[in-house]
Task: inverse folding
């Protein structure tokens, strides 16, 4: 028997990835009773019954085998119609749309499809925790561009320009943003577009929260003039349709890129879950009203929660989308982690420290308002108490 | 009455929870408290907000569970007046909780609450069927309430989500 001669069997790349900062708080919070968790990154709504029904029906009827790799054609057609209707972008369902296992998989595929070893990918921080590790796993080099609270976390095109080198391949833009809730305006997107064109970059547009925009009409990156040919539009059903556990997302991109993503998907995943695809089909056909109701509900809770945070002394900008408030805890003098840990232990309110989303998140906390109004009221009460004691 | 966007928001919120504190309501609709109060008052005075009630699950009050009946009433409408007068004669009784004019096989749907089936049966035979314009009544007793006015009884509001997620 060969003795173990290696120090570890784990790949250097994976060993080098930062462990998720979220994990630590999850481990802590899940051992405690009576915690009000504002650290949840998913809707507090159960998927609407008609969507669940459609999926159940597909199981009853025995639709349990693989679908085409790219996803059911009907679903891709509905997605194309949806994108045209809602965001005024046109994609061919046969060759430019891919149904994936969550938007997360779509991001992973996009990166793996375009990155050559050493290519740089710009990530706008504070950002979703998955982007950096996925860029690294795809063999690329993540480059952070910071946004700040003073600018309400809007991206300053000058900062973006400074970060571009000859090795830059793509920029990841998430709008509405997790964790800040910031929605990039059409003007900002156009400025990013000009830079992308000037330096021949791709934009990976993570638009998973697009349905949850509270003021004005949402502008998709792909709808900005000249951008359709260099945008990989990524979205899904998790947040708008409250289908997080279903793992159903999609990517829309020009033919060449989409086919490259499909190639990987064919080998690594085969297809997205069939029963989830039937659910998604129903979501697009009949889910509009439910989405509008959920949006209204989030908006009112956002209004209440953000006003209350400002009232108790945690300055917070009004986020234009998603369901996160990103208040500053700088007035307390504590670090994000200290604040979050103490708030959890002393008052049993769980929030996510902002530094988990990048260095520019230090001094902030992410609070999800995807919880009942009663829970939010109680959380505010406890936070007020906590602040009074500091 | 054409309601403004904010007024619609107010009634949507209050319909779900009539006890929403005024300062919370104000924050939700993004208006100052005084203005919110004024709008609520306006809606109350216009009888858009008719009343604030509490939805009680009487099954949980031992001995006071009571019985509810839904009665289909066929009526000869009075010449020149229609159904309104009969409807009024029926709804005047305090036991009668609801009276609706219906399309279809019968005319009025009447909801009655009483302490027992016998009490309701007595009311129907003595007070309702005997009314001049009433041709016939069909009484259905509610055996179990699963869902009422959008609220499901006996459903735990379990939050099954994992505690912290990215």
Result:
């Amino acid at each position: 028997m060969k003795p173990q001669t290696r120090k570890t069997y784990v790949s250097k790349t994976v060993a080098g990835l930062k462990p998720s900062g979220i994990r630590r708080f999850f481990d802590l919070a899940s051992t405690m009773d009576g915690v009000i968790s504002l650290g949840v990154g998913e809707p507090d709504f159960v998927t609407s019954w008609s969507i669940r029904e459609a999926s159940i029906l597909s199981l009853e009827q025995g639709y349990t085998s693989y679908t085409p790799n790219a996803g059911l054609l009907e679903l891709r057609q509905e997605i194309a119609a949806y994108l045209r209707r809602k965001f005024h972008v046109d994609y061919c369902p046969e060759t430019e749309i891919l149904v994936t296992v969550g938007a997360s998989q779509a991001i992973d595929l996009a990166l793996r499809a375009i990155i050559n070893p050493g290519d740089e990918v710009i990530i706008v921080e504070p950002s979703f925790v998955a982007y950096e590790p996925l860029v690294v796993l795809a063999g690329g080099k993540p480059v952070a561009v910071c946004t700040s609270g003073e600018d309400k976390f809007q991206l300053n095109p000058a900062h973006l320009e400074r970060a571009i080198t000859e090795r830059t391949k793509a920029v990841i833009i998430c709008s509405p943003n997790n964790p800040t809730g910031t929605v990039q305006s059409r003007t900002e997107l156009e400025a990013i577009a000009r830079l992308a064109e000037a330096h021949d970059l791709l934009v990976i547009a993570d638009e998973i929260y697009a349905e949850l925009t509270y003021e004005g009409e949402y502008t998709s990156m792909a709808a900005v003039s000249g951008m359709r040919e260099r945008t990989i539009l990524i979205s899904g059903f998790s947040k708008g349709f409250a289908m997080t556990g279903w793992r159903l997302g999609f990517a829309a991109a020009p033919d060449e890129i989409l086919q490259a993503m499909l190639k990987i998907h064919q080998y690594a995943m085969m297809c997205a879950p069939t029963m989830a695809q039937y659910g998604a089909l129903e979501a697009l056909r009949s889910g509009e009203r439910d989405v509008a109701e959920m949006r209204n509900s989030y908006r009112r809770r956002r209004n209440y929660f953000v006003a209350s945070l400002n009232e108790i002394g945690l300055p917070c900008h009004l986020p234009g989308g998603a369901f996160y408030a990103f208040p500053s805890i700088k007035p307390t003098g504590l670090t994000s982690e200290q604040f979050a840990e103490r708030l959890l232990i002393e008052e049993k309110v769980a929030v996510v420290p902002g530094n988990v989303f990048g260095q520019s998140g230090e001094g902030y906390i992410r609070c999800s308002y995807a919880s009942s109004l009663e829970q939010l009221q109680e959380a505010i009460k406890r936070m007020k108490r906590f602040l009074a004691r500091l | 009455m054409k309601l403004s966007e904010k007024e619609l928001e107010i009634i949507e919120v209050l319909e779900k929870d009539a006890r929403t504190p005024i300062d919370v309501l104000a924050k939700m609709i993004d208006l100052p408290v005084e203005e919110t109060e004024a709008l609520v008052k306006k809606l109350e005075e216009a009888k858009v907000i008719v009343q604030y009630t509490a939805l009680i699950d009487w099954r949980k009050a031992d001995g006071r569970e009571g019985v509810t009946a839904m009665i289909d009433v066929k009526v000869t409408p009075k010449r020149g007046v229609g159904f309104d007068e009969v409807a009024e004669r029926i709804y005047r009784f305090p036991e009668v909780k609801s009276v609706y004019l219906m399309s279809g096989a019968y005319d009025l749907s009447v909801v009655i609450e009483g302490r027992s089936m016998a009490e309701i049966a007595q009311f129907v035979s003595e007070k309702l069927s005997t009314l001049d314009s009433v041709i016939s009544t069909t009484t259905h007793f509610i055996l179990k309430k699963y869902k009422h006015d959008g609220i499901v009884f006996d459903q735990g509001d379990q939050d099954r989500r994992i505690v912290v997620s990215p």
Q: What stands out?
A: The mean pLDDT of chain B is 92. The first strand of chain B starts at residue 67 and ends at 75. The radius of gyration of chain B is 21 Å. Chain B touches chain A at residues 9, 12-13, 17, 20, 24, 27-30, 157, 159, 161-166 (CB under 8 Å).
